[in-house]
Design goal:
Elements (H helix, E strand, L loop, with lengths): L11 H6 L9 E2 L10 H13 L2 H12 L3 E5 L11 E5 L14 E2 L29 H16 L4 H23 L2 E2 H18 L12 H13 L9 H10 L8 H14 L1 H9 L4 H32 L3 H17 L6 H5 L2 H13 L5 E6 L3 E4 L4 E4 L4 E5 H5 L18 H6 L25 H18 E11 L2 E11 L5
Parallel strand pairs: 1-8, 3-9
Antiparallel strand pairs: 2-3, 4-6, 5-11, 6-9, 7-8, 10-11
Helix pairs in contact: 5-6, 5-17, 6-11, 7-9, 9-11, 10-11, 11-14, 12-17, 14-17
The structure holds protoporphyrin IX containing FE (HEM).
């Protein structure tokens, strides 16, 4: 497993020069409707959150218009977003247009049709909101690549110590109360793990104490509120979450406390940022965002998302994973090493399959940089320059035209030569799993680290336990997992 991206073989300019072949598919006009301005976007938002739910909201429109490329409104709509109208790309083929930065502009579209106030990020537009054509994009992304590369050897030890404590706490809670809330423990543990892995300083040992995860979650909510439903009465959510932004000043003191941690713990990284042409302030706000929003926010959603599939899988899968993980670790002299993890074919496949079934970041956006032709499996569509393109990723990664039994969790889907060929359609990182993140694209800077963390969670789990049971539900940002039993690893296995 690499944590550093591979070197690209072609530059964006060379790729731009590779002329596209004209589409052989029939060119059709894009079906769908935006309805009555102002009224329909609000009505659609209610369908999205309350009456239909996300999957049905998009699938019903695909069914109605008989097309996977369709015009529709996306939430939040008025007054949060000035324009909710998008061209939705909802199959594995048309979705790919969102990764081509010569075709789509990724400026200010990280959260979609609205952008949170930069008062929440120290007055800066941080990396996730920058298009690769903006000079600071490459500088900040390079800073993150350098940080991850320099801390490569710390990831596995930091993960193992922090998650060993998590599992011990879960055992104690199951003994005492009959169950353990994985999400709560994961929030605290992931926050500690990331701080230790990236900067060598446990947040709990800093001025933050144990308040980091709560402060981080509040700050995330101020940015993501327009896209969430927290279970309050609809009218309350509509007014306070979906119509007007939460005032950034109410998260100011939390942000300040988080910032203090970074300005101290990340001092050597900030000094190095200056040589890349970044000010220490801009670098620090970016480190905070990449660590707290991208990394912590990502792990908060991803790890319960992976466990959910294991909790509901055939128990024989647990036995097969335990066997694979233990024999690879034994062959590496009893150590969990990057190369031992690389040998774990089934473990790797399970993580990819969970990311395919449940991509942790479900929405992707990009504005057409020029007039474009977008191809689905069946037809080609003309899009005008400036139109907003939107992808709902679960429909692209559950596309039956690419994956057999696409709606089912198939643990060994990506095992073997044939299985690996499908990896190009696993796109959780905002790009194909077979491609590398770089300063020229918008693929997740933490791509290789993220899949490693998913694998390490399975390694830790099945080194310690033969099997487990858990209740699976839903919560604010995704899946809730409560463990109800952990069966200790038997000495014979
Ligand atoms: C971008 C997902 C963890 C850093 C992205 C994007 C996605 C994503 C989907 C693209 C968003 C868009 O432009 O539409 C995830 C998930 C994670 C995760 C699911 C964890 C489970 C991380 C980590 C880092 C990171 C650990 C650490 C450095 C970034 C950065 C960008 C990004 C800097 C912006 C890239 C650019 O501007 O070129 N991530 N991410 N992410 N991610 Fe991650």
């Amino acid at each position: 497993t690499k944590i550093l991206p591979a070197v690209e073989t072609t530059t964006p300019v060379e790729r731009e020069m590779e002329k596209e072949a004209p589409s052989k598919l029939p060119i059709k006009s894009i079906p769908g409707s935006y309805g009555i301005p102002f009224i329909s976007p609000i009505r659609d938002r209610l369908d999205f959150y309350y009456f239909q739910g996300q999957d049905a909201y998009f699938q019903s429109r695909v069914d109605k218009y008989g097309s996977t490329v369709v015009r529709l409104n996306v939430p939040p709509g008025p007054f949060m977003a000035s324009d909710p109208k998008v061209v939705a790309v909802l199959d594995a083929k048309s979705f790919q247009v969102l990764f081509d930065v010569s075709k789509v502009e990724k400026k200010n579209v990280f959260t979609g049709t609205y952008m949170p106030s930069t008062a929440l990020t120290g007055g800066f537009r941080v990396c996730s909101y920058l298009d690769p054509s903006e000079p600071n994009h490459a500088k900040v992304k390079q800073l993150l690549f350098n940080l991850l590369a320099s801390r490569k050897s710390h990831v596995i030890p930091a993960f193992r110590t922090n998650f060993a404590t998590l599992f011990e706490t879960m055992e104690a809670q199951i003994d005492a109360y009959g169950k353990a809330d994985f999400n709560k423990l994961n929030d605290d543990t992931s926050f500690e793990f990331i701080g230790e892995a990236y900067f060598g300083v446990l947040p709990s040992a800093s001025g933050l104490g144990t308040t980091g995860p709560a402060k981080a979650t509040k700050w995330l909510l101020f940015q993501l509120a327009p896209l969430t439903s927290v279970g309050l009465p609809k009218i309350v959510e509509e007014v306070f979450l979906h119509t007007f932004p939460l005032p950034p000043c109410l998260a100011k003191s939390d942000y300040k406390a988080l910032y203090e941690y970074f300005s101290t713990a990340a001092k050597p990284v900030l000094d190095a940022a200056v040589t890349l042409g970044l000010s220490k302030g801009e670098a620090c706000h970016n480190l905070l965002f990449a660590t707290v929003f991208n990394s912590y926010g990502g792990m908060k959603v991803m790890l319960p998302g992976i466990l959910r599939w294991l909790a509901t899988a055939d128990p024989s899968l647990h036995a097969r994973l335990a066997q694979e993980i233990r024999s690879a670790v034994a062959a590496a002299g009893g150590k969990v090493t990057l190369s031992a993890v690389e040998e774990m074919e089934l473990t790797k496949s399970v993580v990819y399959e969970a990311l395919r079934m449940d991509p942790p970041v479900k929405f992707q956006y990009g504005k057409a940089k020029k007039d474009l032709i977008i191809e689905s499996h069946d037809a080609a569509y003309q899009v005008k320059r400036g139109e907003m393109l939107f992808g709902y990723q679960p429909l692209a990664t559950r596309d039956e035209r690419v994956f057999a039994n696409a709606g089912e969790f198939v643990a060994d889907r990506f095992v073997g030569k044939e299985g690996k060929k499908l990896l190009k359609y696993v796109v959780w990182s905002n790009g194909p799993e077979t491609e590398s993140t770089s300063v020229w694209n918008k693929q997740c800077a933490g791509k290789d680290l993220v899949v490693l963390v998913g694998r390490l969670m399975l390694v830790e789990l099945f080194l310690r336990y033969d099997t487990f049971t858990a209740e699976v539900g839903t919560q604010l940002l995704g899946i809730q997992v409560n463990f109800t039993s952990l069966t200790k690893s038997s000495p014979t296995s």
